[in-house]
Amino acid sequence: MKTIFYIAVMGFVLRVLFITVFMSGVAVDVQPASQKVGPDAAIYNRLALGLLDGKGYVDARGNKTTRRPPLHPVFLALVYAMAGRENFFAVRVAQALLCMMSIYLCGLIAFKATGSRMTAHLAALLYATNPMQIFTSAGIMTETLFTFFLLLTMYLFVCKKNALAVGISLGLAALTRGTGMLFLPAVVLFSDWHDKKRPAVIVLGFIIALMPWTARNYYHFERIIPVSSNIDSVKITGLTVEWNKQIGAEKYALVSRSDATKTFAELVKKQPFTFIQLTFVKWLHFFSPMLADVYRPLYRAVGFLSFFPLLVCSLIWPFVATGKNRTFFYCCLTAIMIFSLSHAVLVSDIRFRIPTEPLFMIFTADVCSVLFTYISQRISHA
């Protein structure tokens, strides 16, 4: 697997070059964190500083909070402890290292799923050089860490490694981004049922990973909150004109802006057919290769070229692929469908799709490998 490792190192180098060339100086200016890294990233930064200062997991007012899952702020706090307070350049380099490990895992997964070194090398290469993956790895957001734990889970799954480790890894993904728990049904459904204990052990591992955080939340709030308490506001946000305007779906919105006096169920019950239309449009947007809220032609072209070939190859995979481990591929398809439909109900943004794209790359690599082999055989027999 040396070739996969070399490709992973190349991916690390490309990411470091990107952050050095395009983001040099960002970490040392005097702007507020929200202007340097964006509003969402500024929230994670503030949570990390609370941990670093010994205040615990607290919001801007110093109160205990459950609004965001804890693992990404913990990751930031660890980097700050080693490299300096609010050292965003160091965070980006650390994330580039995580990407290198993710690229390596992607190649290993492809090899285990197909038995083809060509497929493994191509999957790793696609991940290492994908422009959108390089771009998002520079954000001080959850995507990079979430993708790593997601791919670690799928690697343990496809190798049929320790079932407890599969569940714990997926639990860590959920503690990075709450939607990680959406992969649990597919992982359990397609696990090796010849070992009747394996599905239950996976669920047990998942619960074990979430237990300390859930216990902490119950201690402070006397409520069972497995991951975060942000889900209610997210559900309402996904119905608003304000949010859906950025994807061109504002005409299907159920409410003009977030309204604390109305619940998600009440709004949906009042306009069920409009909600179905909105959900369908948001689901299509989730798979869109076009960045709807970005108007620079160059950025839109990069986004299109980064995902459109992956989408096409993934759609034709069932017709041409000969992967030896079809159970893994069906697990991925099921997980992607659950993940995308859930985001269509909540909030649909291309950024939320980014962590699943390495799975599309494995599909694409398998298709390209099969087609290359077929063409080579036809040429040799001609």
What does this protein structure show overall?
The protein is mainly α and 382 residues long. It has one domain. The protein is 69% helix and 0% strand. It contains 19 helices and no strands. α1 runs parallel beside α6 and α5 packs across α19. About 2% of the residues have low confidence.
Outline of this structure?
With 382 residues, the protein is mainly α.
List the defining traits of the structure above.
382 residues; mainly alpha; 19 helices; 0% strand; globular
The N- to C-terminal Cα distance equals 33 Å
Number of strands: 0
What sequence of helices (H) and strands (E) makes up the elements? HHHHHHHHHHHHHHHHHHH
Our Rg estimate from Cα atoms comes to 21 Å
Secondary structure: helix percent: 55-70%
Q: Report the major sheet.
A: none
How many helices?
19
Q: By helix and strand content, what is the structural category?
A: mainly alpha
Strand content: under 5%
Count the domains: 1
